[in-house]
Amino acid sequence: MTDKTEIRLRDARPALDARPLAKRIGLLILATDHTTEPDFSRMVASERIGVYVARVPYANPTTPENLRRMQPTLTDGAGLILPGEELDAICYSCTAASAVIGDAEVAAAINAAKPGVPVVTPPLAATRGLKALGAKRISILTPYTVETSRPMAAYFERNGFDIASFTCLGLEDDREMARIAPETIVELAREAMAPDAEGLFVSCTALRAAVAVPDMERALGRPVVSSNLATAWNCLRLCGDAAARPELGRLMSLPLAGAA
Question: Are residues 241 and 198 in the same domain?
Answer without folding.
Answer: no
